[in-house]
């Protein structure tokens, strides 16, 4: 190791972030936020196409918070599932929808490490 700052992984990462900031004029946090917004939009467009619904006026969180869309997508993935979608009139019923989705994912063998937790909502 030559002892130069750029030889370390941290120095390389720092210089890469500095380069990104100079190109895009944004902080790392802002770049992550922009990427999340772009991916969220792509995901909502995919959901609209798959379920033939209109979500144009909803944010990613608003679209998924009731759990109805998650359950509908799961039913498409596993038509033999016994997941029932409930019209959530309370946060408790929305949580039941989300838990049904998560339990279905677990039953299909999805690893816990790639599933989100209801607390994330």
Walk me through this protein's architecture.
With 121 residues, the chain is an all-alpha fold. The chain folds into two domains: 7-58, no CATH class; 65-121, no CATH class. It is built from five helices and no strands. It has helices spanning 9-24, 28-51, 60-64, 68-77, 91-107. The longest helix is centred in the N-terminal third of the chain and has 24 residues, at 28-51. The chain is elongated.
Report low-confidence residues grouped into runs of 5 or more.
Answer: 1-11
Could you give a short account of the major beta sheet?
Answer: none
| Overall outline | elongated
Q: Quote the average pLDDT.
A: 81
The chain-level structural class is mainly alpha
H/I helix tally: 5
In whole angstroms, the N-to-C terminal distance is: 46 Å
Proportion of β residues?
Answer: under 5%
Helical content class: 55-70%
Rg, rounded, reads 20 Å
